[in-house]
Amino acid sequence: MTAFPHVSPRILKGGVALIDPETGRVVRIIALQYNPETLSRTLQAQAVGADGGADRSQALRLKGPPIESYKLDAEIDAADQLDDGDELVGRYGIQPHLAALELLVYPTSAQLQEHHAAAGRGELQIAPVEAPLALFIWSTSRVAPVRITDFGVNEEFFDTRLNPIRAKVSLGMRVLSVSDLGYDHRGGALYLRYQQEKERLAATVPGASPSALGLREVPS
Asked: What domain of life does the UniProt record list for this protein's source (predicted)?
């Protein structure tokens, strides 16, 4: 009997996609080289009277979606590319990979120059430059519009040219909801799709019985 060859499952990568908020055009997709082992999330409920100032009739009311944050630490390592003779990595190490991630929190140099030129022309009420809309993608079920809130890099090893060849990147993100973007913004529609996917997944979980909680019935 001929055995079936072992086929390794395809491993999806997490990453960030940048899209034009006006046209929806994909500007760039950045995939993490290695998926982090852990992903931390926090959700802060937006309840009416959370500061203790509302009356009792508002105790069960929510002002909007929770403030949701993601935190991850990812590794970037040039060892395999160096062994394979990758010309770009041999010349710059992992600097291009780091630069692609770091630019998530930069306006472009062209935007900076245009902003400066507009100020020099005496134009009033110059709006801050607008960045592409970032989507944090962690499986097909988690595609969330986000703002990068903090970014840290710990470079660990260097080649003979002082190019970093291994680093750990710490990335913090806040999910942008309809409370942040509005319903007419492209990101607002993407957020609704993100929340609706949560609702769909939650609906697949069967409800527990009162006995599972040690009760004969739920008090009402």
From this structure: Bacteria
